[in-house]
Protein ecm33
Amino acid sequence: MSFAKYLLPALAATQLAFASDSDSCGDVTIKTQSDADGIASCSTLSGDVTIDSSYSGDLTINSVQKITGSITGNNATQLTGIIAPELESIGDSFSLKECTRLTQLSFSGLTSIGEINWEALPALQSLAFTTGVTDAGDVLITNTGLQNLQGISLKTVGKFQITDNTNMKEININNLQNATDLVNIAGNWNKLEIDLPNLGTAYNMTFRNISSVSMPSLEKLKGQLGFWGTEFETFSAPNLTTTADLTFNDNSKLSNISMPVLQKVNGGFVVSRNDKLSDIDLPKLTTVTGAIDFSGTFDTLNMGSLEEVDGGFNVQSTDGTFNCQTFKTLKDNNTIRGTYQCKATTNDPTTANGKSGTGTTSSGSSSSATSSGAASANYAVPATGVAAFFFAIAQLI
């Protein structure tokens, strides 16, 4: 009985101490550095870290190795840096918005983030992610001062949207193998170079305002692949076999398209307003489930294996030496199942919906070529307007 007399108060004190420690390792709002120092005893913080908009200066989070929730900082205009030397993982999102003086993100051990969502960080020019983030669900980076994505070394990503970062000079993610949602790269520095050497599969990919793109391992896309207003001269996809809608529109320096093993386009295939394009080489293309709509100044066109075009066929060029009779034969034998139009040499090439097919001429024509079951294309597709893209297709069927 005497032992129990002393044991019970001791157990009660232990429980109180545990509860107190547990409480200090939950959600925390950081207004000053002392608030951050208050969680330094937590190796794991089971909750969210919210950086108050009033925070000023550098913020250091010591000792914490794991945050199960998120790190959020919105409108913290006096925040200049976040340093977390021991932090290895953020279970939920890492969200920073309108932190206009933030110049430093130093996370030397960070490898895993649920989602990166950074917006309006104009002073942030580089990342100090020494080990490298290899695991993240979505990556959304908009309107920052970043020049590259060094320190983000993902193998798989969901959404990958890098937009309006006007200092972004290169995107090089050697480890990336699979993108399961929209990849949208637009509005960054107009000389942006993209290198994704090991990307094998993806869903939707759209590119604007880039000077080069390398995806030598890309084999399959379930969704669209589109290029608008780029600065690259050659596009080569040596291993691409299958994609959905495929678009090359208004790429002023593009002179060559090479997809030597492309076999199937599950949707519409559009090439227009690429005034320096001379060669379109598609020797293995057998099936297009939508429409083919090529217009411009290209000289050669190789589609010698074509067996099925479920939609319409519109090919018009100012300088073509290709033989339209070859394609007329495909129409006559019902390989091309929709409407048909082919002009190898015309002064005014137009798209299937009557718009000018070059960047130097304009047409008042309002004719359109549509067909039953055809998938056409909208030529003013917003960078993130995938739904609008397919809606426009539906209107033209």
